[in-house]
Amino acid sequence: MPSHVPFRKWLKILAKIFLGLLLILVLIIASGIAFIAVRSHQTVMLPTPTGPYAVGRMEYDWTDQSREDSLAPRPGTKRELVVWAWYPAVRPTGAQTAPYLPPKWGDLNDQQHSAAFGLKIVQSYDSIQTHSFAHAQLATNEARYPVLIFEPGMGNIPAQYTTLIEDLASHGYIIFAINPTYSANMIVFPDGRVAEATNAGKPGDNDNLEVKGNKIVSVWARDVIFTMNQLEHLNATAGNMWSQHLDLTRLGIFGHSFGGATSAQVCHMDTRCKAGIDLDGTLLGDVLQTGLTKPFMVIQSEENPCDADCHTFQQGVQAILRTVPAGEAYHLNIKDTRHFNFSDYAAYFSPLRLLDMLGPIDGVRGLQITRAYVRAFFDKYLNNTPSPLLQGPTSAYPEVQFFKP
């Protein structure tokens, strides 16, 4: 019996060690939960626009009666789009800025990004402050303003690129940004209806990305062309804010990821596109076979490591850009960025950095660089304003690397 005493003591020691480690683990988890809960609700002000104009924002609900929606869950559904506009505005006296997302949009997006017990794993949308004023009056400094059309990345909505879009609007651009119905994770129509992503609207893990991607980019490209048609109608119709103020001879298209691929496809399909930008998007559609005849810029993140798919992508980009008229093609990347550094995720609390979907660059710095080069490109090709940023590397932005098309 006495010989068992040391063994029992050893068991007690092991039990105490186990309980101590368990307590430490519980404390670490509790501290992590507490940090996320506090951090996700702290007020975040998006980076300030750098232009002279205040920024207005409004929403449209447009239905293309000529087109059945192949992405919709019910056959025969007409293609319906929520389109947001950001524009140079007259600053309203005493007005508060618009919420990052309207209440129902924000609530549903928060729910989609909640873990157990309602814990937010990204920034709560009601804690993000914009610089836009809802339904503000269009600034009258210019008779006509250049127009941009924007498409977000797959699953995203344009509001998640507010930092980039507000800056362009503050410099005198009118931006119409499309929410891609049934491809965005969720959108809310003005009457309260909700449309979630469908299997037809998003590539799945078992899908052939090229085949399905080509189908979806065809739908998105027609969304942009439909939006162009709507803008022509608004511009020609008296009695609305845009009447004769949209300079559709100076129209550019840009987008992130899948939206970037869409911009290239539209610039191939429609001569109304005068210039386009692809922010870190894999090119799709028959533009790969036909090439481009319009000024075009590709801005990439710095993937690490750059595997075989990355090299294939680089070759595809180079092949497309070599079809662009001489001197009008631009291919660059931004050091220490990843795919989502082009979105507002870089400016607020998000776990994407832990997943290597946000790079080690300071998020606001990365967005500052993106804003500078996007505006420099459109300034040159829509406003005839040259920029030294497009001539090659600069000490102001050493993170930017140029590739020769």
TrEMBL record:
Key words, A-Z: Hydrolase, Lipid degradation, Lipid metabolism
Annotated signal peptide: none
GO-annotated molecular function: 1-alkyl-2-acetylglycerophosphocholine esterase activity
InterPro entries: AB_hydrolase_fold
GO biological process, one term: lipid catabolic process
Keyword Signal: no
Pfam families: PAF-AH_p_II
Entry protein name: Alpha/beta hydrolase
